[in-house]
Automatic annotation (TrEMBL):
Record field: catalytic activity: an acyl phosphate + H2O = a carboxylate + phosphate + H(+)
Domain Acylphosphatase-like: from-to ranges: 12-98
Family listed: Belongs to the acylphosphatase family.
Source domain of life: Archaea
Name assigned to this protein: acylphosphatase
Main enzyme class: hydrolase
Keywords: Hydrolase
A GO term for molecular function: acylphosphatase activity
Enzyme Commission number: 3.6.1.7
Annotated catalytic residues: R27, N45
Native organism: Halobaculum gomorrense
């Protein structure tokens, strides 16, 4: 597969997760889940108690991480996952934002 084919297969998912998702290692587990699947992006806590994340990578891998978000970390209680797909913006690596 050429780089061009790879870039055409990449997608971006902007995700908001609500429920008991702060103080339960959700961000760290999200980072690990994304890295395990070769997905780039970032994750952070929001002031309203939700977690926000951006995932970029091959469609199957991104969809896998979004699906993982419905369960999340072992101590999390996920109530809702809202994901919007768009064109990638060039994220590289995966970080936890403060």
């Amino acid at each position: 597969m050429s780089d061009e084919d790879d870039s055409e297969n990449r997608v971006r998912a902007h995700v908001f997760v609500s429920g008991r998702v702060q103080g339960v290692f959700y961000r760290a587990n999200t980072r690990d889940a994304a890295r395990d699947r070769g997905v780039d992006g970032w994750v952070r806590n929001l002031d309203d108690g939700r977690v926000e994340a951006v995932f970029e990578g091959p469609r199957d891998a991104v969809e896998g991480v979004v699906e993982w978000c419905h369960t999340g970390s072992p101590s999390a209680v996920v109530e809702e996952v809202d994901a919007e797909y768009d064109d990638p913006e060039g994220e590289r690596g995966f970080t936890i934002r403060r």
